[in-house]
């Protein structure tokens, strides 16, 4: 079966540009030529410098290494950039503009807002993907590399077309065999993949296991201050760069959820990260060190521990201690990619350490690519969040580059949502999340609506009515998902381990630190400074005061910060319990509506996509009903308060 080539499936056929000019400069020109042949089949290369379509290398400082301009005048188009890499980005933009019939401006300049624009695969060598919902790994099967280079090349072009410039290809939980990826014979296999991404200007990184000096090197310790351990990593780096001179570096999950790290040796994260950084530094490599560090063996009886505090408590005191080639990677929220969380206080907090933000495109907690859930609105909220660390210009998107001492080492990363499934993402509509992620981190000002509009035009051939229907489904899907799942920012309530479907108390008496504390009177976690865990104090003053005070704390995250009686009246005018009932009825009804209106698209989308979405919507409806009834019943039983509208709630 032909793979669904997502946003590069349509070619430019009916444009007046029948010939183009480009100088042959470097190996990326080969890629550009190949892409032109694929995407603009009627446009032939010419040696006429004044062809109707020209790709030009220029020297315009403001464009940097990746930016480009598309000039449209006198019937000609000129794509210009300082590098062939920039031209390649420009060509994909032009393809998109022509396919979607976007009116070309006389001068369109595009320079990425974030320097690091990365994806992390959580793929395992056995072919499984941790939190993967689109089939097995693209790269591995049964402890072998798949060597499916055509598919990988197809993937590389999809990523380039949306602006991604780096990726890791193995899980941050680095299991036994994958620990050896930094050595031969695996290194040659890694190189074969790295070469393909390099054709598109993407840099490949590996996740490494902090204990590799023991398991690979045969040492008795992985202590970052031990000389032999330092030598092990320096040798490993030498070997890697001898094979792959353009290798990006390491991504590290250390002292997190059972992964080894410096704590074992009474050392800290800066000791561990800087030790690896020293090994990579002579080669220009980078260490990306994750801040997802918390006590995952918590006793639920111990109310003094708050998982939300952990990243800030661990890393804030180390700000400024990290080498220039270390980047900290911080999840968008303090817990774990919930449908609604406050923004991590490390953004705006850290000012002396390079850092990137981590999103999750994979829908671990947002319906696992069985439910439609458009994540752009959430990501926009995070990037536009005003940390209030300064009077102005203190949004997350502005502070990421500003608060990293080396602007080239700041940006955004994300757990990707693709697998070997023919449509890449399992749920066809989940493609929009990958597309949107790339577009948004390149251009932080793009709106959710613009992204959706583009993706629909690139993907389907819809009538205006059809487009309206699909726009409505996708645009409302995030709010819908939130409505029928965990309310008011409390999070979790999912089945343990696989995290799919409702299980309200599933984690309540467990060790993972994700509690909601519902009792007969109320629900929520008291994270105030006054008499709670004090998490609220990790924010800048204005935010702290806003969250600390129940009068000003926003409704949508109020249960994250406060334990409230069910009868507490929200800013919306509803009580907590009535809000829960209303949103859960609304959420489910909306899914019922999606199922119905999708049928109207039968003749508008290809059969595979039609059936794919229809089947998944049916599952979403089944699951949303479970959520609705379990949540409503749970809170009815706890509170004894009836629904004002007397809808059916099971006793
Ligand atoms: C890769 C969550 C997920 C884990 C994941 C972890 C992480 O806890 O459930 O599967 O592990 O985040 O981000 O490291």
UniProtKB/TrEMBL annotation:
GO terms for molecular function: alpha-glucuronidase activity; xylan alpha-1,2-glucuronosidase activity. Keywords: Hydrolase. One of its GO terms (cellular component) is extracellular region. GO terms for biological process: xylan catabolic process. It holds the Pfam family Glyco_hydro_67C. Residues 425-647 form the Glycosyl hydrolase family 67 C-terminal domain. The active site is at residues 257, 336, 364. Residues 108-424 form the Glycosyl hydrolase family 67 catalytic domain. PANTHER family: ALPHA-GLUCURONIDASE A. This is Alpha-glucuronidase. It comes from Jeotgalibaca porci.
């Amino acid at each position: 079966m032909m793979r669904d080539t997502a946003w590069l499936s349509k070619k430019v056929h009916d444009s007046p540009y029948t010939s183009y000019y480009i100088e042959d400069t470097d190996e990326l020109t080969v890629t550009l030529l190949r892409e032109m042949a694929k995407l603009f089949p009627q446009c032939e290369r010419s040696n006429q410098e004044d062809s109707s379509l020209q790709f030009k290398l220029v020297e315009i400082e403001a464009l940097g290494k990746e930016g480009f301009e598309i000039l449209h005048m006198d019937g000609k188009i000129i794509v210009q950039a300082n590098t062939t890499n920039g031209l390649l980005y420009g060509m994909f933009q032009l393809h998109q503009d022509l396919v979607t019939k976007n009116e070309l401006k006389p001068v369109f300049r595009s320079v990425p807002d974030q320097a690091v624009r990365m994806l992390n695969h959580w793929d395992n060598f056995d072919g499984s993907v941790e939190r993967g919902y689109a089939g097995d790994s693209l790269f591995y099967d049964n402890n072998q590399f798949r060597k499916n280079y055509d598919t990988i090349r197809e993937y590389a072009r999809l990523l380039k077309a949306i602006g991604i410039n780096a990726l890791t290809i193995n899980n941050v939980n680095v299991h036994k065999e994958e620990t050896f990826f930094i050595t031969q014979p695996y290194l040659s296999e890694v190189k074969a993949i790295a070469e393909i991404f390099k054709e598109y200007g993407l840099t490949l990184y590996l996740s490494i296991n902090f204990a590799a000096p023991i398991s690979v090197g045969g040492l008795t310790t992985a202590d970052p201050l031990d000389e032999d351990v330092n030598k092990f990593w320096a040798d490993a780096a030498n070997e890697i760069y001898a094979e792959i001179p353009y290798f990006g570096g390491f991504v590290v999950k250390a002292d997190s959820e059972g992964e080894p790290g410096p704590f074992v040796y009474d050392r800290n994260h800066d000791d561990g990260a800087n030790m690896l950084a020293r090994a990579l530094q002579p080669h220009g490599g980078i260490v990306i060190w994750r801040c997802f560090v918390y006590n995952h063996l918590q006793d639920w009886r111990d109310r003094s521990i708050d998982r939300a505090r952990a990243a800030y408590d661990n890393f804030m005191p180390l700000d400024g201690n990290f080498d220039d080639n270390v980047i900290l990677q911080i999840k968008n929220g303090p817990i774990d990619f919930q449908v609604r969380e406050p923004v991590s206080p490390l953004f705006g907090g850290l000012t002396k350490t390079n850092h990137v933000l981590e999103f999750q495109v994979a829908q671990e907690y947002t319906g696992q690519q069985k439910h439609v859930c458009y994540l752009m609105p959430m990501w926009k909220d995070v990037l536009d969040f005003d940390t209030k660390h300064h009077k102005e210009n203190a949004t997350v998107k502005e502070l990421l580059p500003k608060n990293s001492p080396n602007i080239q080492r700041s940006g955004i990363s994300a757990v990707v949502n693709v697998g070997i499934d023919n449509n890449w993402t399992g749920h066809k509509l989940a493609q929009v999340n990958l597309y949107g992620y790339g577009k948004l981190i390149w251009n932080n000002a793009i709106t959710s609506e613009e992204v959706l509009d583009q993706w629909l035009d690139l993907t389907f051939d819809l009538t205006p009515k059809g487009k309206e229907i699909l726009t409505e489904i996708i645009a409302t899907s995030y709010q819908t998902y939130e409505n029928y799942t965990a309310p008011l920012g409390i999070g979790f309530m999912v089945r343990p381990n696989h995290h799919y479907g409702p299980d309200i108390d599933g984690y309540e008496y467990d060790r993972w630190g994700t509690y909601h504390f519902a009792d007969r009177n109320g629900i929520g976690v008291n994270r105030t400074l006054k008499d709670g865990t004090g998490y609220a104090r990790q924010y800048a003053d204005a935010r702290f005061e806003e969250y600390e005070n129940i009068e000003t704390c926003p409704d949508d995250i109020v249960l994250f910060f406060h334990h409230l009686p069910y009868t507490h009246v929200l800013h919306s005018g509803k009580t907590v319990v009535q809000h829960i009932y209303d949103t859960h009825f609304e959420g489910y009804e909306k899914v019922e509506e999606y199922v119905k209106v999708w049928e109207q698209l039968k003749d508008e989308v290809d059969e595979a996509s039609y059936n794919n979405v229809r089947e998944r919507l049916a599952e979403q409806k089944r699951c949303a009903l479970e959520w609705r009834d379990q949540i409503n019943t749970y809170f009815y039983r706890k509170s004894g308060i009836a629904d004002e509208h007397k809808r059916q709630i099971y006793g």
